[in-house]
Write a structure and sequence with these properties.
Helix 2 packs across helix 4. This protein is an alpha+beta fold. It has 2 domains: 124 residues, Rossmann fold, CATH 3.40.50.10070; 156 residues, 6 Propeller (Neuraminidase). The chain is elongated. A hairpin with a 5-residue loop joins strand 24 and strand 25. Belongs to the TolB family. Pfam families: PD40 (PF07676), TolB_N (PF04052). It comes from Chlorobium limicola. Keywords: Signal.
């Protein structure tokens, strides 16, 4: 056995060292966190989960092309920042070596010096009345080309072109689809009547879809985005309308009574509550407005249908037991259970 005696001075020194060690551990335990993945543990700073990306300015020749390039660069940058997946780093001055344009090459050493994981850049040109955005994406650590793609469209489609690149980049790096290119549908009374509008995922590009000067409610897109179902009081009673987003044709459910609360089962069938047979039951409606079949058959009001992704299960609200409660029904067999 070994014993050790410490004087007062030495004891104070040891205690102070232990306190500093404890405080240091406490501080860094808050500043760092560990992520286990497979056979290794990655230690990184708290909140440092974003992809370090250098987004270079698009190369363009000509004043017109330069203006288009600036607009596209802004769309892409704003979109990537909005996604909250990237830390967008300004490109270093010498990010490309050699001559401008196609003859230049990416300076991976300069990218590594600013901590970039991914580099994205390209060029903008015009041909046959179309704007072309040629983009390249590189892994800066492996100096490897990850993606090379051209996006084309008219000048009024620059926003869609930039968002298409954002969608491809996110899917490339995360393996997941994103909301770029998706639409939000909503109701507003800014004209004095409740009308239906749509906008881009970020609230931009607002477009009015109805102009009935009446009450339009409960808009919902089909899963493939090709059709819009909504309820309108244009005829004096709540009626379900189905609009094709490609040709703007509209089909109405021509039944007496109410027709409310649509919920899509798939791209061609939407469920809604109808009362033409007396009780308010849920029916499946075809895209042409015709009835496909009746889904519920019980005393009480059945409303708010919504479906599982495969369309085999339907959840809805029913007052069949007195108070409104949520039920789930197997669409094929009709078997229903209360949640």
């Amino acid at each position: 056995m070994t014993s050790c005696a410490l004087g007062k001075g030495n004891a104070k020194t040891v205690v102070a060292a232990l306190v500093l060690t404890f405080l240091s551990f406490a501080f860094f335990s808050h500043a760092l966190h560990a992520e286990a993945s497979g056979e290794y543990i990655a230690i990184r700073k708290q909140g440092a989960g974003k992809i370090a990306l250098v987004l270079d300015k698009s190369d363009a020749k000509g004043n017109k092309e330069s203006g288009l390039a600036q607009n596209l660069d802004s769309v892409v940058k704003e979109g990537l920042i909005f996604s909250d997946l990237f830390s967008v780093i300004p490109p270093p001055l010498n990010v490309r070596t050699g001559s401008d344009g196609k003859g230049s090459s990416v300076n991976f050493g300069a990218l590594s010096s600013v901590g970039a994981e991914v580099y994205a850049g390209g060029s903008v040109s015009r041909k046959s009345g179309k704007v072309n955005l040629d983009m390249e994406v590189y892994d800066t650590f492996g100096t490897k080309l990850l993606m090379k793609k051209t996006y084309s469209g008219s000048e009024d489609q620059l926003r869609a072109m930039g968002h298409a690149f954002c969608a491809d980049l996110i899917e490339l790096l995360t393996g997941k689809k994103s909301y770029f290119g998706s639409k939000i549908v909503f109701v507003s009374n800014k004209t004095g009547s409740k009308e239906i509008y749509q906008c881009d995922f970020d609230g931009q590009g607002i477009q009015q879809l109805t102009n009935f000067r009446s009450i339009s409610l409960t808009p919902v897109f089909s899963p493939d985005g090709t059709r819009l179902a909504y309820t309108s009081y244009t005829s004096g009673k709540p009626t379900l309308y189905i609009r094709s987003m490609s040709d703007n044709s509209i089909a109405a459910v021509g039944k007496d009574g109410v027709s409310v609360d649509p919920g899509w089962r798939n791209g061609s069938e939407v469920a809604t509550t109808l009362s033409f047979e007396g009780d308010q039951e849920i029916y499946l409606i075809r895209s042409d407005g015709g009835i496909s079949r009746r889904l519920t058959n019980s005393r009480g009001i059945d409303v708010s249908p919504t479906f599982s992704p495969d369309g085999k299960q339907m959840a809805f609200v029913s007052s069949r037991n007195g108070m409104p409660q949520i039920f789930v029904q197997d669409v094929q067999s009709g078997q229903t259970r209360r949640l």
